[in-house]
Amino acid sequence: MLKLDRDCFKAILAAALALVAVHALGRFAYTPLLPLLLDDGLFSLAQGAQLATWNYLGYLLGALLALPMASPRGLRLGLPVALLFNAGLTLAQVFTRDIDMLAVLRLSNGISNGVVFVLAPALVLEWLAVRQATALSGLVYLGLGGGMLLCGALVVLTPWQGPLRWLPIALVALPLALISAGMLRRLAQQLPASAQASTPGRLIDRRSLPLLLAYLGAGLGYILPLTFLPALAREQLPPGHPLLIGNWWWTALACLISATLWNRVGAWLGDRRALQVNYVLQLLGTALPVLLPGPVGVLGSAVLVGGTFLGTVLLTQRLARALKPSQGPRLAALLISLYGGSQLVGPWFVEHWTAAGHSLTSSFSIGALALLWSLFWTWRAPTPDSPTERKLAPCS
Asked: What is the pTM of this model?
């Protein structure tokens, strides 16, 4: 089994800190904040869903922008700039109550987040590949799990209301972004030129299409609980129930262990079979609030979805690279673009579904159907050949 040497640890830490700053604090902090901002009267549930939609649209645009940025110059300069810009946008939310300005900020946050979420893990994956250590790549997502716990603590402990609830989150995101930006820039400079360039060719063919279609469903499937589970808990649970706040803690705890868990399961079963198991569990977690409304459904959804969605990301990215080893960052950008595009449907659907008088709970059935679609296409994905990697000294 591969062990982390000092250089590999620093490479993984660089991307992990970036994911804490942009994805956990910049993006997912919105989930535990949402019911509190609703109570503060900052906006309505429909407006909150609109803000989520703008953020997910930005995420899609950022992932598409990452396609041309997956180059030596983009990794060396564009990635650190996007990371710092994202942290600045998180801080800017402290200073406005205007819903239109918040929409602009959430859109811009999503764009910069999409760039970083694609390029930072892709950079580390390529860096590890030349050291014959791609099996360690899933560890970068430990940053997201740890960051979700961190943002949960920051949300609960802040004494302020309204836009000021973003202040402690921003004050943590800014130094993390600064540290990570410098580390990622140095990492990009160390990457051999042969590993930075993708070989021209088709990204979409018979080998990659089933995996791409599966990932399309995964984006819609996970985004409903990851955005609306705390709000759904208010719909299903009585006032004062510990899961009204505690559901996010269970989600974050499950997420924290999931990167290591699915990294090991992928090594044990193979990434393709591990991904099939992942989708079964995630489907069950999304359906539980519909099948068992109340504490069991809320807790089960928090644990199962929190413990699987990161596994979906790392297993899919690794499986895709094994199917097309010469396409690296370009394929990662395409996958995240599909993931981001299908996420847009979630908050848009919730906005119109609840406006028509339906419950938030019933909307989760759409997420379960999307994950059933993902499971079907994953069964049709091919098993990759033995990967060929550019060789340098392996991580020991």
From this structure: 0.78
